[in-house]
Specification:
Elements (H helix, E strand, L loop, with lengths): L2 H17 L6 E2 L9 H14 L8 E2 L4 H14 L2 E4 L3 H14 L21 E4 L6 E6 L3 E6 L7 E3 L7 H11 L4 E5 L3 H14 L5 E5 L2 E2 L15 H6 L4 H9 L13 H7 L10 E2 L2 H14 L2 H14 L9 H11 L6 H12 L8 H4 L4 H15 L6 H15 L7 H9 L7 H8 L1 H15 L1
Parallel strand pairs: 1-2, 8-9, 10-11
Antiparallel strand pairs: 3-4, 4-7, 5-6
Helix pairs in contact: 1-9, 3-5, 5-6, 8-10, 11-12, 11-13, 12-13, 12-18, 15-16, 15-19, 16-18, 17-18, 17-19, 18-19
Length: 451
C-alpha cells in the first residue's frame, strides 16, 4: 500500500466524514496473478494501521464479473457498444495505419451489421463518439476537455468474456452508490473514458476529484531512492499513525497556517475543493517534527507497548516486570525522539542486565578520586526518600557545591555507572527511570568493578 494510496484513502475518509457520507472500500482483484490473499491483507493492514475504517464490508470486484457482463449486454442493446471480430493480425495492421494517420484505432466492425458476424472470437468495445469533446468537471483540476477523436473504442469485455478495469469500476461504483470518486491524477484520462461508459449506460456520472502525485524532496517522482514508500515501511520506521494522518492531509491541502490539528479538526475543515493541483513533496523534516509532537503527546503506557515491539524486532527480550520501568522512563526521554526507533534507543539503558559491562572509555572515568566522590554521592542518594527529578537535581547540585567542584568532575562517571555507555537522559532523569534500588545497585557494581 503506497503512501500515495494511503493519502487518497485519507482524503476519501475525511471527505466522507466531513459531508456525512460513507467511506467505502473495494478490492479491485480482477488481475488474479497480482491479487493474492497476501496482497489484499497488506491493504487491510495498512488501512487498519492508519485508523481508516470503512463504513461497510469491503466489496471484491472479481466475483461480480457476471454483473459486469450484464452491463455490457445492456450497452450492446442500447447501441453504445459493439462486438469486434478483428483478428490479432487485423488489429495490428489497423494500429499501424492509425499511427501513420495520427489517429486512434477504429474497428471496421464498429458500424457493421450483427448479421454479418463471423463465427470466431470477439471482444466487446465501447462505441465512443468521434465528434465533439468529453468534459470532465474535476474538483481539483477544474474543467478538463478531451477531444473525442482522441478517445479510442476501449475494450469492455475480452475474448474470454472477462471485464476490463474501466468497465468494472464504472459498474461497481454505480451499484455501490458512489457519488464522489477521489483518486490519483494518473486516472484522469480514465475519467474521460469512464464518463463515456456512464453515458453509454444512461447512468449519472459521479463527481470526479483527481489528486496530484506525491514527489520526493527533490521534486522528482517518488521512488525507492527517496526512502520509504509503503505504509508498512513508515510503520516499521517508527512513525505513529496519528502523525502520518496529520502529515498526509497536509500533502496537497491545508487550513491556513495550521500545522498540527486533530482528526476532528481535519474532518471539520476538509473539503476536496481546497486540494491544490500541484504535486506535493515528501518532507522528512516536517514528518519527523510532527511525529515527535505526537510521541510527546501519547500515553506512556501505549508508547511502552510500541517500544517493546521495537525491542523484540531487534531480538532484545523485554520482561513483563520491565514494562512499568519502560513506562516510567518514556516521559523522561521522549522529548528528543523523532521516531519510535529513537525512543527505543533511548530506553535501552534501563533494560540492561547487571552487572553492566563498561566500555574502556567509561572505565577510564572511574579513577581513584572519582570513585571516592561517587561513593560519597551514593551515601547521599541512599538517604534521599523523595526519588523525583527536581529533588535529585537539587541533591546533585548541592553535592557538587559541597565537594567544591563542577558536576563535570563526576557527572560523566555517574552516567557511565548508571547506563553502561548507552544513551540516557540527564542524571536525575536516569536515576528516576532506573528507580532507587537499581540506581544504587548499579553504582555499587561500578565502584566494585573499578576497584
Amino acid at each position: 500500500m503506497h503512501i500515495g494510496t494511503a493519502r487518497t484513502a485519507l482524503f476519501n475518509w475525511l471527505y466522507a466524514r466531513h459531508t456525512g457520507g460513507k467511506f467505502l472500500l473495494r478490492i479491485e482483484d480482477t488481475d488474479r496473478e497480482r491479487s493474492t490473499p497476501e496482497a489484499v491483507e497488506v491493504i487491510f493492514e495498512g488501512l487498519k494501521w492508519l485508523g481508516l475504517e470503512a463504513d461497510a464490508e469491503p466489496v471484491f470486484q472479481f466475483p461480480r464479473a457476471e454483473r459486469h457482463r450484464q452491463a455490457v449486454e445492456e450497452m450492446l442493446a442500447r447501441g453504445s457498444a459493439y462486438r469486434d471480430y478483428m483478428t490479432p493480425e487485423e488489429l495490428e495492421a489497423e494500429r499501424e495505419v492509425a499511427r501513420a494517420e495520427g489517429r486512434v484505432v477504429r474497428s471496421p466492425w464498429r458500424d457493421a451489421s450483427p448479421n454479418d458476424a463471423p463465427d470466431r472470437p470477439f471482444v466487446v468495445r465501447l462505441k465512443a463518439p468521434i465528434e465533439g469533446e468529453t468534459i470532465v468537471e474535476d474538483q481539483v483540476k477544474g474543467q478538463v476537455q478531451f477531444q473525442n477523436r482522441n478517445l479510442d473504442d476501449l475494450i469492455l469485455l475480452r475474448t474470454d468474456g472477462t471485464p476490463t478495469y474501466n468497465l468494472a469500476v464504472v459498474v461497481d461504483d454505480h451499484d455501490m452508490g458512489v457519488t464522489h470518486v477521489i483518486r490519483g491524477d494518473d486516472h484522469l484520462n480514465n475519467a474521460a473514458r469512464q464518463t463515456l461508459i456512464y453515458q453509454g449506460l444512461g447512468w449519472e456520472v459521479p463527481v470526479w476529484a483527481h489528486l496530484p502525485l506525491i514527489h520526493g524532496p527533490d521534486g522528482a517522482k517518488l521512488s525507492k531512492r527517496h526512502g520509504a514508500q509503503a505504509v508498512s515501511e513508515f510503520d516499521a520506521m517508527g512513525y505513529l499513525p496519528e502523525a502520518m494522518r496529520n502529515y498526509l492531509v497536509k500533502l496537497g491541502w491545508g487550513h491556513g497556517d495550521d500545522e498540527i490539528f486533530s482528526d476532528d479538526q481535519a474532518i471539520a475543515w476538509f473539503d476536496i475543493k481546497d486540494v491544490v493541483s500541484a504535486p506535493a513533496r515528501l518532507d522528512w523534516d516536517k514528518l519527523n517534527h510532527l511525529n515527535n509532537h505526537y510521541i510527546r503527546q501519547a500515553d506512556p503506557a501505549r508508547l511502552a507497548q510500541l517500544v517493546v515491539g521495537v525491542h523484540k524486532s531487534r531480538d532484545r527480550k523485554v520482561l513483563e516486570a520491565q514494562l512499568p520501568v519502560l513506562q516510567r522512563t518514556i516521559p523522561l526521554v521522549r522529548d528528543g525522539a523523532k521516531t519510535l526507533l529513537e525512543l527505543a534507543d533511548a530506553t535501552v539503558f534501563v533494560l540492561r542486565e547487571r552487572p553492566l559491562e563498561l566500555p574502556e572509555k567509561q572505565r577510564g572515568l572511574l579513577n581513584e578520586e572519582t570513585r571516592a566522590r561517587l561513593s560519597r554521592l551514593r551515601e547521599r542518594l541512599a538517604d534521599e526518600a523523595a526519588w523525583e527529578v527536581p529533588t535529585l537535581e537539587g541533591l546533585i547540585r548541592g553535592f557538587a557545591e559541597a565537594e567544591g567542584v563542577g558536576i563535570g568532575k563526576f557527572g560523566p562517571a555517574l552516567r557511565a555507572a548508571l547506563s553502561g555507555g548507552s544513551p540516557a537522559p540527564d542524571l536525575a532523569g536516569a536515576l528516576v527511570a532506573l528507580g532507587k534500588d537499581e540506581s544504587l545497585a548499579r553504582l555499587d557494581d561500578a565502584l566494585s568493578y573499578a576497584a
